[in-house]
Design brief:
single chain, alpha/beta, 5-stranded mixed barrel, two-stranded antiparallel ribbon, 3 helices, elongated
Length: 234
Amino acid sequence: MFAAIAFAVLVGLGSWQLQRLQWKLGLIARIDERVHALPVPLAPLLTRGDAPAGDIEYTHIAATGRFRHDLERYLYANGDSDWGWDVLTPLELASGETVIVNRGFVPRARLDRASRAAGLVDGTVTVTGLVRQTPAGRPWSVPAGDPAKGTWFWPEIPAIAASMYPADHRPLTTLYVDADPVAAAAPPAGGATNLELPNRHLEYAYTWFGLAAALAAIYGAFAVRQLYGSRGKG
């Protein structure tokens, strides 16, 4: 009885991983389609103020406004050869709303704005990028941000927005934008989005089905031995 229950559980887990595989493949295809689509205006994706209009993550958007470089905040990130920071900058839109834009990576040695003055675009700009929706709460293993220093280790957008502006003028906090890669005279140069989604569901399915097969083989050998052992005694 216990072997039958365990076998059913293992097969169920394998089947669940196959379902997850189909979901992940669909998600990857949907993201790829959105990433390579022409950018659409950000405003129509919002139903009211801070409320996204449904599933809009990874939508390729365009937004026109003015960067507030003096309100930059920094999110820990790993570069190709060293760690550093992604630069989060509020973009004040003509509509009166403000959205936080991840402008991309800067090495830790160039965190000071004076060392990358050529990358501080002034005046009205049009930014293209991918909509990212604010993730769930910070995992316990990730350090808390330091609002006094303006440094963060998890995209806690509501807290980051609160450190930028007073309560009566907060940026959108249910979403932010990862800017597209651009040719820039100085960092950041955009392209912070990680589009390599892990997909090991087929591997996990093989593991569960393999364990089920091993259990069936072991039980089969046990049953045969018990059967022939009983006959020998008789």
